[in-house]
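Changelog entry: the ABC transporter permease record was regenerated in this release. Current contents:
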Amino acid sequence: MSLAIKSTAPGASFSEAPLLLLLKLRTFIALFAVVVFFSFAAHNFLSIENLLIMSRHVALNAFLAIGMTFVIVAGGIDLSVGSVVGLTGMVAGGLILKGIPIGSEYTLFLSVPAVIVVALIVGVLVGAINGLLITRLNVAPFIATLGTLYIARGAALLSSGGETFPNLTGNPAYGTSGFPVLGSATILGIPLTVWLLVVVGVVAAYIAARTPLGRQIYAVGANERAAQLSGVRVNRVKMFVYMFSGFCAAIVGLIISSELVASHPMSGETFELNAIAAAVLGGTSMSGGRGKIGGTIVGAFVIGMLSDGLVMMGVSSFWQTVIKGVVIVAAVVVDQIQRRAQQRFALQKQAATGA
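Regenerated structure tokens:
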């Protein structure tokens, strides 16, 4: 029996290894395929000007996808991020244009840095509400974040009666000028948005790979009960991932309002689909416990370039939605194939070693 194992296991291992390598590199392969295809199919796709524009779009999706990665790795889902984008943008726009009424005679106007801080706090608070619903009231993540999706969107609409806050250039006399710089500034020719993504991405990657909190996030997603028995404060971990997701969504809301120099209550609609697609395409397992920030950022590049390339080709927005849905399903299917291949490879290696 041992001779049979020795003769078959090595061959099986060699046949599995290339498949596993291809599956692990699927995001880079997809990115390469997208770039090659659109470089021929879309005029000026690889021009410097277009690449800079795409980098802004990719960055917005990447911010949301980074926060979504933490949530999914911990075994949850956050459907509210798109609505948080709209809400935080409206908060910033309202503070710049209308300020905070104090009584009937006075209005308090905050400086732009203070406006940014307040908007970020709002995003974190929405994330905290999601976390409390899930950890304290035992509401399923899908239902809890679906509820806050509607609440946040409704609050954004109520803040202006469904209208846009236009012309957010601010008033120097009130100290509210300078907000558009966040979305339009460049450093060394690269948009400030991209530099912010680098900072957030590095911090998130460090947390995930180098800190006890990161290990706890993976442990909770892999086996929540086992993590709890080993001393992990599961509820605190879940609170963190949802608050971090809200923080990332708030960044996107601020950047979009700054770029447009206006806030619209419907900003960020369906952005959660792009975030989920980027995370899953980047190797994050929907069952939790597995995923990397680097892979998610590459996945965001794939989704962003795919979207912009389809726009440049004149593809209908309806078909773009269909294609994104196909990408999500395909990414999940490939993830399942990878998991099964890894299990078979591990069993074959164990059998060969044991023999």
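The beta strands are 100-102, 106-108, 186-187, 190-191.
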